[in-house]
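Much of what follows relies on a compact textual record of a protein's fold. Each token is a code from a learned vocabulary of local backbone shapes. The record below shows the convention in full.
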Amino acid sequence: MNIYLIRHGDAEKASTHKKDFDRKLTVEGEQKIKTAAEGWKVLIPNFSHIISSPLIRAVQTAEIIAIVYKITGKIIMDKRLAFGGKTDDIIDIANEIMGNDMAFVGHEPDFSAHVSNLISSSGANIDFKKGMIARISFDGKVKMTRGVLEFLIPAKAYK
């Protein structure tokens, strides 16, 4: 089983006039995610499921990926992918769905911690940039420290 952690694209700056939940992708952020997703297709033919944080910028990122991949199924929204989520939440979601290639769209600093927790018992220092994708493979069910980090690709790799 493979899980893909994908950080949302570049979003509007935080402001006192807009709730963090409602911050949208910038036009540049949308384009970078579209270009990166088109590049990912060389390595990842399809996603069995797309699971997204409910925050607008993550949902928009998930929608762009679904369009690029021509996925007609519903994007699964899960509040456990919003800020402060635990790695156990990712594990629970993945093992409930049991898809082959599941894409999780979310946020920092959570995703750096998730990658570290999924691949190492001693910790790994990950700098998970906007639009970045990580593939972690598992032999069977997703378990803490049992994953293999197969790749970590920044969006800027696809220009």
Observations:
- The helical segments are 27-40, 56-68, 87-97, 110-119.
- The radius of gyration is 14 Å.
